[in-house]
Structure formats: structure tokens, C-alpha cells
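PROTOCOL LOG
Step 1. Enter all chains and additional molecules of the complex.
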Amino acid sequence: MPTVLGELAGIEARSERYMDLHVLAKIVVPLSISLSLPFAKEPLQALSLVAVSAIACAAAGIHLSALKKFLAVIVSMSAFIVLAFSLFTYIPGRVLYEATLWKVQAEKGVFEWKIAVTDTGLLYSAAFILRIFAMILSATLLLASVTDRDLVWGLFSLKMPFGVCVAASLFFRGIHLFVSDFYTVREAMSARGVDFERTPLVKRFTLYANALIPLLSLMITRSYEVSMALESRGIAPGSRSASGYHLYRMRRSDYAAVAAGIALTLAFAAWGWLA
Amino acid sequence: MSKAAVVENVWWRYEGRSDYALKGLSLEVERGEVLAVMGHSGAGKTTLALALTGIIPQRVPGAFKGRVEVLGMSTIKADVTEIAKRAAIVFEDPEIQFVMSTVEDEIALALEPLRIGREEMKERIVWSLELVGLDRSFLGRSPLQLSGGEKQRVAIAAAVAREPELLILDEPTSDLDPAGKEEVVAAIRRLRDQLDTTVVLIEHEPEYVAEFADRVAVIKEGRVALDGEPGEVFSRVDYVKGCGVYPPEVSEISADLGLGSVYRFDQALELLKASVKGFRSYSFVERNSFGSTLIECRDVHYAYPNGVRALKGVSLEIRGGELVALVGPNGGGKTTLAKVMGGLLKPSAGEVRVLGRRVEDYDRLTLSSLVGYVYQNPDHQIFNKSVYEEVAFGLRLRKLPEKEVREKVSRALELFELKGLEGEHPFFLSKGEKRRLALASVYALDPKVLIVDEPTTGQDMRFNEILFTVLKRLTDEGRAVVVITHSIPLAARYADRFVVVKDGKVVASGSPRRVLTSSAAEEGRLTKPQVLRLALALGLDSNVAPLSVEEFVKVVEVARA
Amino acid sequence: MSGEVQVEEMPRRGITWMHIVTFAFATAISYVLAVVSSLIFPVLGAPGVSALYVASAIYVPLGIWMGLWGCLAGYMSCFFLGLYPSGYSPVQSFVWSWADFIEAFVPLLIYRALKADLDFTVKRPRAAKLLPFFVSSGSILLLLGIVIQVLWGVAFGEPFTTIYVVLVYLGAALAVVGIILGLLAGNARTWLAQILSIIATGVCSGLWGAGTLTIFNFPPPLPAELFWPVFVGWVLSDYIVLSVISTALLIALTPVFKRTGLLVKGWWA
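Step 2. Run joint prediction.
Step 3. Record the structure below.
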């Protein structure tokens, strides 16, 4: 059963033991990492959180080379974080590099825009950048381990209305359908003579509107047909499953994983408070 | 015994439309019978199906009048959810019927309204799968991974799992390739033999109707035009054709040869064996000369990014004035080959030339003016908010003067019978009109080659005949037309050449007659026309193989002379 | 048939499967387009923020057509975008995604407040074609002027104050021309609602979006110092996409939503 990240980026959690966990456990573990983030303010705390996240991903069978997919994100965020602390503000500390970019004699004083790299600024940057890694790993862990079936069964077992459960399932189905539609529509525009690469930017905007018309038309047509099929099943969107078919009980391993997650967050909260 | 369904003087108009879809339709369905409902596209068949489930008028906005009673329940007073516990429907498009991620979950969802226990649900899921010829290994599979025939069988399983008293099958084979059709037909045979349920079968294929139906109702423009036993209905060949329904070819042959009211293959075979003692040789005229080569593929290979090798050394020529049908099983490489010829996909090896020049040497605009491509689903290539703008889209892209745009649009609309619909929003066109619009939009660019991907899927016979007539007319203008199709009997009558594509290779290329009477027909899983099967069963030489009713009658008349 | 058709009394239709399925599919399309936009036209340094966020052209009109379903589609698609490919944590994404909910909600509120009829029939095509340029450029100049004054004009005075005044006057003039063009383009109330929606929603969603990326979140993924660049980039992109693409979609597809009965008069049905 493919996961969201599996469908989109080919990243899957390969550990059978982890994948066998209840969906609640598979959600709580990355959630606890993300809840620990606000407490990881110092570089050491952030580094520890990154280590914990990496261990969790490894336990789930997610290869850390998955981070390659986020390389652009990591590099661009890191660069802008450093710029933020050196270009858009001045963090007091030992100045390592300084240069004035623009100086204007304004009415009420001298406006100076300079780039100033200080050691404190770099430390702040380090903490932020390390947190990015933890962020990405928690998001990856969530999306690479939770399948759409997990989610839908979880919702059924929580006695959510059919409308919610089916909507969740259709969202995942829809991704698959519309990725295919998107490429077909683009191809169809090429078949009519549109060359996206050589089209000027302004014209490209208006062509995007043309491309969205068939996508939305397809969406409406499919929605109509799928909803007729659902109506014919005899289930009302607001009613709930009475069959108990979607038995989804938690086991000891699930409780252990949830407990570990909660403990992690509490530990980082305590560390953050004490520090 | 009470009726399974009573439809009395029903009028229905969809919201936002001016015309009524059902115009005083009255029909009764007897318990236990298989009632086939036939009619042209837009006649009101699916609307009738929705009315029988109560979805119309309870869930679809519109204006309703009349009375519909299903299994003793009024479709106005009893809620759709109540009716669905006893009546089930399977729709034409297998894709839209799946909302869950596994086959098991899909069928389980269908059983929820019955409010039965978990164990009973599990049993019914397995039972219903076996009924349609699928085993337990399908339980954990995603419906998206299944073939068309498998998908439709799962949809049928989900419907029959509820053991409905009334089962409505709305064109269950229309969207499938021949292999898929066979699978679904086999499943329906099992249902008929094992389930005690009333079936309403909406179908275009006359052979399936002939096999299954106890009674046939022909709908025309929102009303029942004819209602009776299959033999009775199909014997009125001209009348039913006027309603957009094509009887089995054996019925037409029997009517032309005065053999009486025949609608089954075995009946026709018996009668013909008795009435014709020997056949004389006869040769059909086949066209052999065509224009110059417009597209040439030399040892073309194509592999998709996921590694699947779709084309494995294809060499082919498309000549001016030729109608070529690309045929073969699904997944064989027909669409990939078509897209490679259209320059939409770049071959991983080999060469494609258009008018002698390599495809890579053309820019997008010029190439798309030479080779037009029409997609299977016209919704993928309708980009504008009016019919006129849609046809003008490609012309304006080429910066033609507005006067020239108007002329070309007008010509295209006329050829494809869309005059009068210029201001209409494409979304509201019928399926057939949308398909014609897609064709018109590409035709307006005046391409030398037109590639059309499965234009006949889901359409009625009358539309398909008209479509092929138009495509044939285009070849008379010197253009080449390449059609990907599963409608072998129809293509056989119009195409100059069949190219059979299987497993990424061209396994046969020749006249329809030659291909259909060779081993390539079995290899490509091509459905032979009924007249051809009849001829071969009568022992006719493959050289005298007729492909149409007219040809068959000619052969018989020569034999009798 | 001659005479009137008697419509049988039907139970009042509340939320139907049509609403739910359309919402689910719209969320899926929005997510697919969001991923594509953020990969093809990224705003470097702010993952998930795109210079051409085409997804908003789906859920903002959907909010106008289908009420809160569109807002929810915006929220959910942004939530998943936050996770992949932006890499934000689930909690950060949960907070950040309200920006897209707001982006669809503000136009919905404006249309309802003005009781605009959703009549996008274009009476003067030229006016409709020129309108996006004037509205978006006018709004962008106004915004830039205000930002310059807030950041530097108050503290340093000239020449920033002059720049602010010039930009604000020019921007306001262009925006006013845009409004006039809108009133001439077709139904005055509908077009006025559309123009006001574009201007207001960009700022409101930008404030939340940029704010939750830089100032308030659990924790904000970016430093507070990046608020203004992210905010300006966000609003710019919104103005362009909403004035060009979503307006075009409203013109093209409102008749479809009306005739298919998908149009929602309440908030959910």
C-alpha cells in the first residue's frame, strides 16, 4: 500500500514492524518530534532533536538519503536564515565580517544597510538550520509511514461519519488521478501547438488559466459521477459505520510507541525550561 | 407476483437544461427477468437507471413528474438509502465507482447499509468476488492496479454482495477493451446462472443483448419506442436503426435474405447451412494505392521513465489518403506509438520522420500543424469557455488574421455538425458533441495527418458510424487518419489497413480482411465481426471473407444464383 | 410536453455526496498544483511560498462557488504542502495552513457582504482584459509604498517618505482605474466584489502566512527578520494569480457551477 510520500517522491518506510503500528502511533511519533521543536532553541538541543528524528526515521526504515529530495529546501532556507541574521538585522557579538551595502543620508539620520556576520548570529543560524532538519525528518516520517488505508481505517474506527472517511480516501485517489490529468492536459496543449518553454511569461499566465479549465471540468464531471456511485451505495454522508468491520485495535507496541513520543516531548520541554 | 419496477409517465428535466431527458416514459420490469434497454446516446437510458434507484429525483436537481415504484417502494417517498438496500447499480465507467484503497474495503463499504456483522461481511466479500470470477488474492489489491475488466468485475461484486433483488447494469462493457468485455460478460453469465435477481441491462452491443435478454426495450428521445422479445425487436431492422440501435448482424442478414426473425448466431448458422449448399469464389475490391509517405517510423524504441519498454523496434509508414486502424490488446503500445508519431513523445532509439524531416527538427507549432492528435477523453483537450473559442484556440495561437480564423472555424464546425453551438459552453455538450468538438479543433489546424485515440469508446453505434464516415471523408482529401480503436467490426468496414500492435511490436500490418483471417487476429485478441465468424463457420474460404452485412449478403446471393 | 411540470415535493437537500466528493477532489487538485507551483516557481528561502501559487486559483474561486468547502480545500491542500515538499513539521503546517483558509474565506465574506450575484458575464471584453494589470499593479505599488513607509519612512523620513507618497498615489490611481474597468466590464456588484477580494485577501492571507513562517508558530521555521520579504512576495504572488488566473476561471466556470447545482447558497449547502 503506497504512502503519500511513496506516491509523490518514492520515499517509503520499509520497516515492517514500524508499518504494522497503529495509525495513531505512526502519527504521534512524528507529532511528538514536531511538538519538541519549540523547546529546541539552542544548537545542542536542536542537534539532539535531529539525532532523535534520524533514529526514528532509521527505525521506520526510511533511508536518510530521502533528505536528498529536500536538498533545495535545506540549502535555500539555510542561506536565507544566515542572511536574515546578517543582512536584515544585527545580532550583537564578535563581528566576523562586516560590509556596508547601501548608505543614504535621510532626513532624520543616516540609513545604513549593511551585512554583519557575528558569532552569535551564526549560533542562532545554526540552531535554526538544525531545527530545519528535525522539521523535515518529522514530516518525512509522517508522510512516508502513514498510508491512505491507515488513515481511512483510523477514521472508521473512530466512528467518524462516512463523509469524512470517504473524503479522506478520495483525496488520496484524487492526487493520483489529477497528477495524471495534469500531465495529459499539458501534453494536449503541446499537441495544439503550445510550447511552454518558449512562451513569454505573460502569455504563459493566461495559458495556465486555459490549462486549469479542463482540470476543473474533469473534477466536476468526476465528482458528479463518483457522487452518483456513492448515492447508489445507500450510505448517507452523515451516517456512521455500524458493522464494526474496521477493527483497529492498539497493541502493546503501539502504546509503547505513543508513550515514547510523549516522553520525548516532555523531556525536551523540561530541558528547554531548565536551560 | 408484483412487478420489480413500474415507471409511469415519467418526465424529467435536469436543472439548467431546457430539454427534457425523459418525456413521459412508461415501462414495467417483471420480477426475475433480464430486461435489456437499448437506445442512442442521450436517449435517456442512464437517466432511467438513476430514476430506478431514486437518485433521480432525490439527489439530482431538476424537475420531475410521474411515478416510479421499485420493489414496491415509491422512489419519492422511500429514501435512496432504503432503496439501495434492495436495488443496486453498476455504472459504465469502472474508475468512478471506486472510492476506497483496496478491493476488500470497496466491497465492505457497499455492504455497510445492510448493517450486518463483521463475519458475515467477510463471507459475503469473498463470495461476491468468486461469483464474478476473482479470487481472494484480489482482496488487498488497489482497484487502480487492476485491468479494466477486473475493475468492472469488482464493481459488480460490490453490487451483488448486497444480494439485490434488482440489479441495474448500465453499459458495463462500454469502456472496456475486448478482453475486458469477455471477462465481464463471463461474470454476467455466472450471475444469471447463480443469482435469482431481476436484471436491467443497459447495453449497446446487440450480441450481448441477444445472449442475455428476455425482453428488449428501445428508448428514443426520452420515450420507449419499442418493447418486446429480442427476436421481435431485432426483426424490425430499419425501425430500430432509426432509433440508434443496431441489431445483431445475423438479424440484418436474416432480414435481407428472408430467413425470418433471427437474432442468435446459432439460429442463423443453422438456417444458412440449410439454405446455402455451396459457396462460389468471390473477390472483394480492396484499395491498394495511396499517396506519399507522410510519417515514417524506423526501428523506434520507447521506454517510460519507470523503465517499462513500451515500443521495441517498430517500423511503420503512414501514407496520404489512408485510414489506418491501430488495434491490439490494452497495454500493447498503441497509444505510445501514436504519441511518438505525433511528436509528443521522444523515442529512446530509432527515428520518426514527418514529411521526410526528422521530428526533432520541427518546432512545436509547425509539427502540431502537420500532425494533429485527438485524445481519448475530449475533456483533456477542451481549454475554452465556448465552442467557437475552442476551435479558434489553435488558430489564434498561430496568430492568423481574425477573418481567416472565422472561416476555418466555420468550416470545421460545419464538417463536424456543430453549427449552431458556437456560443455553447463545452462542458454542457453531450459526450458525442465533445468528441466532435475535439476533432473540429484539431481539424481546423489543417493537419496532414490526424491521429485519433479511441474515439468510439462509450459511444453508440450510430455515432461511431457517423464518426468513421467523417474520418473516411478526410482521407478522401488526401490526409492520413490513424485511429486507435477496439471497435474491430466497425473499423474493418472503413479502414484501409489494420496495424496490430502487441507487446511493443507490430505483429501484423495489412488489409482488415487479411489480418482478421490470419493468426494475427488471435494474437492481437481482435474481436471478429459476427458476419466473418458466421462466414468462417459456414466454411467460407478466408479469401472470400465478408466484413459487413452487405458483403455477406452479396456472397450468399452469388452462391444462390 | 404541454403545460407545466408538477415538481414533487422533495426533501430539502443538505450536504450531499456531491459536495463532499467535489471538496475531496478540489483538495487533491489544489495540492497537486501547490506542489508543482512551489517546485517550479519557488520563493527561495520560504518553502511552500511560490511566486506563482496556481493552487489558489482553484480554492479561492471554489470558496466563492461552494462556500466553506473551498476554504477547507485551501486549508487541507496547504497542510499537506507544508509537510511535503516544504518539510514543515505537522504542528507548524497545522498553524501555517490557516493562511490559505483565510485566502478563500475573505473573498467569500466580501461576496456575501456585498450580496454579489456571481454574474461574470463580460459585457466589455477589453475592460475585462485590462483589469488584472491595473488592479494587480496598483495594489502592488500601494503595498510597496506602505511597506517602505513602515520600515523606513517613519524612522528616517526623506527620501523614503517621498517614495512612499509617489508609490501610494500611483498605486491608488492604477487601482482606481482597475476598479472603474471592473465596473464597466460587466455586473458592477460582482466585479467590485472580485476586485476588493483580490486586494483584501492577499494582505490578510499574507499576514497570517508570513507571520506563521517567521513570527508566531511552534516554532516559526524562519527568523522574524524575514517577515517583510516573505510577506511582500506572498502578496505579490496572490495579486497576480488571483487577478489573472482566478478571474479567468470565474468567468469560464461560474456557469458550470450554476447549472450543475454545485453552487452553495449557505456556508456548506
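Step 4. Note key features.
Chain A has a mean pLDDT of 89.
The two ends of chain A are 44 Å apart (CA to CA).
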